[in-house]
């Protein structure tokens, strides 16, 4: 009898789709245990990603599923979150102190990649993760301004650097090392060497995620970094404009070529909401991100409007997720962050499917 009840409960849990992983709770491995004692049921759920602002809602859904049609009594529903390391690029050793590295990239400059990267990092933090950000945009390092950090980083041993800290993030940027008004005129190999040093010689402390604000484009620097940093996954930021989408496709293909899984696309500046009359308009065209996502079989992780507050709060060193945590825009960033982390949590499971071993047989 108790086995029947257990499988009935399991069946119901397999009908709950987690919007962040895109998978049901049973298939994703989130259901760790179902305990049955008479009519009382205990359900233990473990998510592989941070979801502080969603845990209670999930527990409610699970309780409802267990108790529906008087099936059983949900005596306890535990929902816990634990981030695991999902290193997927082969033959590379992980960065010390870092579980997962996520590149935020765009094909084209100026689409809002840095703004998205820092807001997503803050959103992951708000959802309960330990997060760092690395500014690899060497020709236009904007993380010092966006995170309200500055000054030369300290070096305890003359070789490694301590990351700067603000808003609960650990931050490192090439911008700390160069004068603000000095243009960077290094050649490609020097840039990649400097960026590799910055990534490996920073004393990151127990990070669940290191978010990298990638250099724009698919040139030498971006490609070399994608091949040499032990990346877990990438997220592509684009505007819905045709010209940005063409370049975003190139970025997506570059990551696929070097076997870095692309978790999805974030559409930035999708619509503009007039601050006077509230009229919403798709000034860069409608539905471009969704079409591109469909074409390449990756999810659209979410879209953000063109909103003056996103710019002004970022410029003031206090991006929207911390400046206005209860705003609808901050909620969107948090939802996208949970989707990024949720999809990443399934990567290890899907790895075998994504990169099958090819055996060539001599006939
Ligand atoms: N959704 C948005 N609404 C309003 N302003 C935005 C939005 N996203 C970004 N911006 C603003 O657009 C400008 C460019 O953004 P950002 O620096 O993040 O782009 P980027 O793609 O990283 O550029 P680059 O590659 O040149 O570094 C900034 O002034 C930023 O504040």
UniProtKB/TrEMBL annotation:
The keyword Zinc does not apply. Keywords: ATP-binding, Hydrolase, Iron, Iron-sulfur, Metal-binding, Nucleotide-binding. ATP binds at residues 107-114. Residues 7-77 form the MIP18 family-like domain. It comes from the Bacteria. Gene3D superfamilies: Fe-S cluster assembly (FSCA), P-loop containing nucleotide triphosphate hydrolases. Pfam families: FeS_assembly_P, ParA. PANTHER family: IRON-SULFUR PROTEIN NUBPL (PTHR42961). Homodimer. Belongs to the Mrp/NBP35 ATP-binding proteins family. In the N-terminal section; belongs to the MIP18 family. Binds and transfers iron-sulfur (Fe-S) clusters to target apoproteins. Can hydrolyze ATP. This is Iron-sulfur cluster carrier protein. It comes from Tahibacter amnicola. The gene is apbC.
């Amino acid at each position: 009898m108790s086995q029947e009840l257990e499988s009935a409960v399991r069946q119901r849990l397999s009908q709950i789709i987690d919007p962040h992983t895109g998978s049901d709770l049973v298939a994703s491995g989130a259901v760790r245990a179902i305990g049955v004692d008479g009519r009382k049921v205990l359900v233990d759920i473990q998510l592989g990603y941070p979801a502080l602002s969603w845990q209670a809602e999930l527990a409610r859904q699970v309780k409802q599923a267990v108790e529906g049609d008087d099936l059983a009594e949900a005596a306890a529903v535990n929902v816990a979150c634990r981030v695991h390391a999902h290193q997927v690029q082969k033959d590379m050793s992980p960065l010390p102190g870092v579980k997962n590295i996520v590149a935020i990239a765009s094909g084209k400059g100026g689409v809002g990649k840095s703004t998205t990267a820092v807001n997503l990092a803050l959103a992951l933090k708000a959802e309960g993760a330990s997060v760092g950000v690395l500014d690899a945009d060497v020709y236009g390092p904007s993380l010092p301004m966006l995170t309200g950090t500055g000054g030369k980083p300290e070096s305890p041993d003359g070789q490694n650097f301590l990351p700067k800290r603000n808003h609960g993030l650990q931050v490192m940027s090439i911008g700390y090392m160069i004068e603000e008004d000095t243009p960077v005129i290094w050649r490609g190999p020097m840039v990649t060497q400097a960026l590799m040093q910055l990534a490996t010689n920073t004393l990151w402390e127990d990070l669940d995620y290191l978010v990298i604000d990638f250099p724009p484009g698919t040139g030498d620097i971006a490609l070399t970094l994608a091949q040499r940093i032990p990346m877990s996954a990438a997220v592509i930021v684009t505007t819905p404009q045709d010209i940005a989408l063409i370049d975003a496709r190139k970025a997506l293909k570059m990551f696929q070529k070097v076997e870095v899984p692309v978790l999805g696309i974030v559409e930035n500046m999708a619509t503009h909401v007039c601050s006077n009359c509230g009229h919403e308009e798709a000034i860069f065209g409608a539905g471009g991100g969704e079409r591109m996502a469909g074409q390449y079989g990756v999810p659209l992780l979410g879209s953000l409007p063109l909103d003056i507050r996103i710019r002004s709060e970022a410029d003031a060193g206090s991006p929207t997720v911390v400046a206005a945590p209860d705003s609808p825009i901050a909620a969107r960033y948090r939802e996208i962050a949970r989707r990024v982390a949720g999809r990443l949590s399934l990567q290890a499971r899907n790895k075998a499917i994504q990169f099958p071993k090819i055996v060539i047989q001599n006939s």
